[in-house]
Amino acid sequence: MLVNPSLLLLDEPTSGLDSTTAQRIVATLRQLARGGRTVITTIHQPSSRLYRMFDKAGFNFINPADFLLDLANGIGPDAKQDDQLEYNGRLEHQEDQNTTKQFLISSYKKNLYPVLKAEFSKVIKTQFLLLQGQHHHLEAVESTNGPPAGLLWWHSDTSHIQDQVGLLFFFSIFWGFFPLFNAIFAFPMERPMLVKERSSGMYRLSSYYFARTVGDLPMELVLPTVFVTVSYWMGGLKPSFVTFALTLSIVLYNVLVSQGLGLALGAILMDVKQGTTLASVTMLVFLLAGGYYIQHIPSFIAWLKYISFSHYCYKLLVGVQYSVNEVYECEMGMHCSVMDFPAIKYLGLDSMWSDVAALAVMLVGYRVLAYVALRMGQPH
């Protein structure tokens, strides 16, 4: 109360107090609530006078705890105690009591449950939006890199095919790097909250996992869409809407795979520092084995490119950008086939569907691995 919090949680603040002091405590809390704060409290054996001070108590003229207990035991609110003692001895008491309980249950489901469910959904949505707002504030900066990239590759064409290929490789690396590092923070940062809420049985681990991953998708996909849309047309890539749509789809595909790997690394290590270190090394390996910088990788280490999602993304981007009949000016006055350009010829663009399948395996495999690691790391 000294730091003037916007939300105040109190656990039985009136327990052990006399009625006068309890009333003063609740009156003070009511004044705090009227000042724009939210006060949530559990209360032990309150009087009806205290109940009338609550904004959300449900009853104003009778203590609801006494009222519900009386009803559940078959005691009418206006009956006298002597009559109840006589009534309790009757043989039909048990049957009437069960009928009353069923009536209370049905009344709750009909009248109170819809209201409580609506309020709970509203609270959960608010918490979700707050968490998403914190998470996506940093991500919003990423989309601002689109115009600089478009200016650096301003209206390049096939006469500068090396530059165009470099832009496509930049797509695969840039939108593999950021989703990976953003996803690493997801589980380690929320681990204390997850352990606490899971220990109280608030929700299933699978519910948390899917909500956490699905909740990130809108901003994870919107930002690369903005980036690619700006830099694609500014960079002078093929002026075809179909080619642009395929390029965007491949980049988004790459984002989902990269995010899955980040979730898996975060769930396995559960440490931000270790996760970012391992991610840096992983992305460096993928960067070098992607097929752009090194075209003659020694055979004993050439297998690295087959585990690099950036390699598959790069191949697909190049494959949809250039056709087999396309040419470029290889020397002054001479034109050569684009497929014979060394950087493209090395990639081998005759197995694009196998590249799609490889990314699909990674997409599913990384996310399954993340869930399994998360479950194994939970206390039993």
Q: Tell me, briefly, the overall form.
A: elongated
**Count of helix runs:** 14
Number of domains: 2
Q: Strands across the major sheet, in which order? A: 1-2
Distance between the termini: 36 Å
Q: What is the residue-averaged pLDDT?
A: 79
Strand content: 5-15%
GO molecular function: ABC-type transporter activity
InterPro entries: ABC2_TM, ABCG_transporters, P-loop_NTPase
Pfam families: ABC2_membrane
Protein name: ABC transporter G family member 21
Please give a structural write-up.
Residues 150-322 form the ABC-2 type transporter transmembrane domain. It holds the Pfam family ABC2_membrane. GO terms for molecular function: ABC-type transporter activity. It is a multi-pass membrane protein. This is ABC transporter G family member 21. With 380 residues, the protein is mainly alpha-helical. It has two domains: 7-59, no CATH class; 122-377, no CATH class. It has helices spanning 19-34, 48-51, 64-72, 81-88, 93-139, 146-152, 161-184, 186-199, 205-234, 241-269, 272-288, 309-321, 342-347, 352-376, and strands at residues 7-11, 38-42, 327-331, 334-337. The chain has a two-stranded parallel sheet with strand order 1-2. The longest helix has 47 residues, at 93-139. It is elongated, with a radius of gyration of 32 Å.
